[in-house]
Design goal:
The chain is an alpha+beta fold. It folds into two domains: 31 residues; 76 residues, OB fold (Dihydrolipoamide Acetyltransferase, E2P) (Beta Barrel). Helix content is 29%, strand content 33%. The protein contains three helices and five strands. A five-stranded mixed β-barrel has the order 1-2-3-5-4. The radius of gyration is 25 Å and the shape is elongated. It starts with 6 loop residues before the first helix and ends with a helix.
């Protein structure tokens, strides 16, 4: 008499384990960009160029120029910007992590940008 039962029936099959692992991996990958997108960014610097709804910002702190997406910013906030304008950009990191999606652009006076 076998009271232990069929041990194979008690263990998950390789297929169900594989499906579970794939579902876990997909949920982690889908959640990661959402977390990165919510990271607030506050930058000040000088406009290297601006065209349509895109801007390249040279951070005051130095380092790598930052691509800025202006789609969510009202046109009035950046319409008068030119190359060399001193600005402060508030926004969030984009879904792909390659740019900042601006929510606000404020023009700074030359002496004001030195204090930040």
């Amino acid at each position: 008499m076998d009271l232990g039962g069929d041990r194979r029936a008690m263990r998950p099959s390789v297929d169900s384990l594989t499906r579970w692992l794939v579902a876990l991996a997909v949920s982690i990958l889908l959640a990661s960009p959402a977390v990165a997108q919510q990271e607030d960014v506050f930058l000040s610097g000088r406009v290297q160029w601006i065209a349509a709804q895109k801007m390249l910002l040279l951070p005051r702190s130095g380092g790598v120029p930052v691509n800025v997406d202006l789609v969510q910013v009202p046109l009035e906030q950046y319409a008068g910007l030119t190359q060399g304008s001193q600005v402060r950009v508030d926004g969030v990191i984009s879904y792909d992590g390659r740019r900042v999606v601006a929510t606000s652009v404020v023009t700074l006076a030359a002496n004001e940008s030195d204090r930040r």
